[in-house]
Amino acid sequence: MTTPPALNVLFICTGNSARSILAEAMLNQLGRGHFRAFSAGSQPRGRVHPLALQTLRHLHFDDTGLSSKSWGVFAEPDAPRMDFVITVCDQAAGEVCPVWPGQPITAHWGVADPAAVEGSDDAKRHAFLDMAVTLKRRTEFLLALPLAKLETLAIQREVRDIGKR
């Protein structure tokens, strides 16, 4: 019996510095070869937020090689073909996205921007942790879907419903 190829997932957020970065790292680790996750932004900040990296390490996720990049990288002809494109912030969900080759399944898993939280360092760390817990739970829901047994439209519905949980 052959193992099916990993499914490619692109997480998009405007700045690609926190939410999409955490989703990428979590799915890559939790997906254990069944998924290959990437992240990008429409207006990337060019750096990963330090609290995003701290949160990943706190939750025992690997933060190696994570970077803030443009979604244009994944619209190039030689880019990996995406099976799923998931927006994780409200701004990116409303933007006109590039045309993704292969008609990937799309969904919106909106999460509040922890980088926008003002106040004490503890309040900021708490906001990042809350966001991470939400994304981890949604990632686990995705991993629990019986993808091999579902039709494409059912997969589309299920993946979109994850963002509403």
From TrEMBL:
> What SUPFAM superfamilies would the database entry show?
Phosphotyrosine protein phosphatases I (SSF52788)
Q: Does the keyword Amino-acid biosynthesis apply?
A: no
Q: Where is the Phosphotyrosine protein phosphatase I domain?
A: 7-145
SMART domains reported in the protein's UniProt record: LMWPc
**Superkingdom of this entry's organism?**
Bacteria
The family database entries (Gene3D superfamilies) matched by this protein are listed as:
3.40.50.2300
Q: Does the keyword rRNA processing apply?
A: no
Keyword annotations for this protein?
A: Arsenical resistance
Q: Which InterPro entries match?
A: Ptyr_pPase, Ptyr_pPase_sf
**Protein name, please?**
Arsenate reductase
Per the UniProt record, the source organism is Pseudorhodoferax aquiterrae
